Amino acid sequence: MDHSEKVEAYYEKEQPFKEAIGILRELAIKSGAGETLKWGSPVYTVQGKNIFGIMAFKEHFGIWFFNGVYLKDSLGVLQTGQEKTKAMRHWKFRSAEDIDQNAVLAYMKEAVKNQEKGLEWKPERTEHTIIPALLKDALESDPVLKESFGKLSPYKQREFCEHIETAKQEKTKQRRLEKSLPMIRKGVGLHDKYRS
């Protein structure tokens, strides 16, 4: 099944917001963005860059704008995402009747124009990676592991550190460390299997 068939399957799937997300899809197509499927959901792109996506959940559905921080949001409808996604903004709906088609299309077109202008959030780079204590101990006790970790790109080192450090419980941190060590030894990044 290719991307277009997968997108069709997403919109054809029986679920409470099927009609409503179909309306958003029609508007997305009118915006001039290309349609694809990423992370199991329809995503709309310009010049190969993700602009916005459409997704349905149990209690709501909506549009998420990848660089929504640059939208004017004259209606005050956009919500911010998580701390990690500083640029992303969401517009949530609870029914098809909530969709103001002219306003939604205007937001989508503005997002497309912003991308064409090159407005794109660049995450702040940290000076250096802070290695969590558990990982630091493992590296200090194993010179081969330490050498392998040193050969990883700073980005991949940071991914491992954040993966371990963001766990709330110690046992989860330990489990994540145990999963990470063989990957580090092999020189494999935490998310390499998802990268093309």
List the helices and strands and how they pair.
Blueprint: H1 3-12, H2 18-30, E1 34-38, E2 41-46, E3 49-56, E4 61-65, E5 79-80, E6 89-93, H3 101-116, H4 133-141, H5 143-151, H6 154-165, H7 170-186
Antiparallel strand pairs: 1-2, 2-3, 3-4, 4-6, 5-6
Helix pairs in contact: 2-3, 4-5, 5-7, 6-7
How does this model look, in words?
This protein has 196 residues and is an alpha+beta fold. It has seven helices and six strands; from the N terminus they run H-H-E-E-E-E-E-E-H-H-H-H-H. It has helices at 3-12, 18-30, 101-116, 133-141, 143-151, 154-165, 170-186; strands spanning 34-38, 41-46, 49-56, 61-65, 79-80, 89-93. Strands 1-2-3-4-6-5 form a six-stranded antiparallel β-sheet. Helix 4 crosses helix 5, helix 5 (143-151) crosses helix 7 and helix 6 packs antiparallel against helix 7. It is elongated and about 60 Å long. Residues 25-112 form the YdhG-like domain.
Concise synopsis of the structure shown:
By secondary structure, the protein is an alpha+beta fold. The protein has helices at residues 3-12, 18-30, 101-116, 133-141, 143-151, 154-165, 170-186, and strands at residues 34-38, 41-46, 49-56, 61-65, 79-80, 89-93. Strands 1-2-3-4-6-5 form a six-stranded antiparallel sheet.
